[in-house]
Amino acid sequence: MDLAKIRKKARLDKGGRASQEPEERHEAPAPSPPSSPETAALDISPPPSGPSTASSGARETVDTSDAPASNAATHAPSKKERLLIFTIETEKYAIPIHEISLIIEPPPITPIPNCPDYLLGIVSLRGKVVSIIDVASRLRLQRLTAPTAPKIVILDLGSDQFGLYVDGIDQLVEVALLSLETPPEGFTQKAQDFVEGVFHHKDRAVAYLNLPAFLSFRL
Q1: How far apart are CA 100 and CA 156, in angstroms?
Q2: CATH class of the 60-214 domain in this structure
Q3: pLDDT tens digit sequence for 136-172
Q4: Domain residues of the chain, as ranges?
């Protein structure tokens, strides 16, 4: 008789029934709720009440808080990407909406000496210093007329914040990045260096900017 049977026999009560030891119960942990495709909304809410930390004249003009936050599922190459189209003269360009924190009217910009011509200067926004880049100058495009409704698109890239000075804002679209076409020959060489591809929207070619390349520069 093995040890288990000996212990069982020793627990027999006077009526001949075995005293059953309560079995140890293991409750399975409650399943975690499935993760949502939209893990968090972008922080584009207005600054808290009280004295503003932004430079005078800065004002939020476009609310993109319903844009999904960046995650692997949403921005997989086979998925459609939400892009913001903006204008430079008569041309249209697009960047991912998940890189944008807010869009403002151009505030007073403090110039920085001995900087490239495309770096317009800096502004203080919500306690952070933001470098402002003139997209037209960065692409070596010549403006024939002054923009009538310029905007600054604020990019929040973690430790770095940049503002893109653009001629105007067009609209939000969804585009499958795998469908991008090779940039046409009409682009300048500098523009081609920063354009990852083009897509067509409303019978117009829209250039998709390669932000890492566009923002890679030395002062």
Answers
A1: 6
A2: mainly beta
A3: 999 988 888 889 999 999 998 877 899 999 999 999 9
A4: 60-214
